[in-house]
Amino acid sequence: MRDWSIRTIYLYLVSFVTLMMIIWGTVQFINVVVAFVYPPPVYSPTPAELRMQAENQHVPLEVVQEQARTEEQRQLQQVRYDRARRAAQTLALLGVALPVYLYHWRKIQHESQKPPASNGHPV
After folding, report:
1. How many CB atoms within 10 Å of residue 5?
2. Quick one: what percent of the chain has pLDDT higher than 90?
3. CA–CA dist 33, 22 (Å, integer)
4. Measured between alpha carbons, how far is 87 from 74 in angstroms, rounded to an integer?
5. Averaged pLDDT for residues 92-111
6. What is the chain written as a DSSP string?
7. pTM of this structure
8. Taking a C-beta distance cutoff of 8 angstroms, is the pair 117, 35 a contact?
9. Cα 114 from chain centroid?
10. Dist CA 115 CA 26 (whole Å)
């Protein structure tokens, strides 16, 4: 019979929470890998939209096209930054949760192998 002391409950609770963190981190890591393999599309205006914008702003079409290319580059940089940041967050989550989980789970395993402590009462 398991001794459900506060220490045992604490060990199981921390193990459960960190295991959930590991599962969540693994899902996020898979999402990051998918985002690297299949990056999200970068949207840019169509040629017709660029012509309409140039006409509405009374500027040459080349200026509007250059502005659209610059915005597309900014979007690409932002996508790369977001992917790198998510990858770092995911690795940090796994890097913290995994050792904490392993430590607490090993403590549980170690304590479960100990014979039950007798508290002086006959069985």
Report:
1. 11
2. 50
3. 16
4. 20
5. 94
6. -----HHHHHHHHHHHHHHHHHHHHHHHHHHHHHHHHSPPPPP---HHHHHHHHHHHT--HHHHHHHHHHHHHHHHHHHHHHHHHHHHHHHHHHHHHHHHHHHHHHHHHHHHHSPPPP-S---
7. 0.71
8. no
9. 38
10. 36
Q: Is the CB of residue 90 less than 8 Å from the CB of residue 21?
A: no
Q: How far apart are CA 25 and CA 6, in angstroms?
A: 28
Q: What six digits make up the tokens of 49?
A: 């939209």
Q: How many residues does the chain have?
A: 123
Q: If we measure between CA atoms, which residue out of 120, 119, 106 comes closest to residue 3? A: 119
Mean pLDDT of the region 74-98: 93
Instruction: Enumerate residues 6+ apart whose C-beta is below 8 A from 39.
Output: 79, 83
Q: Which residue has the tokens 């940089």?
A: 77
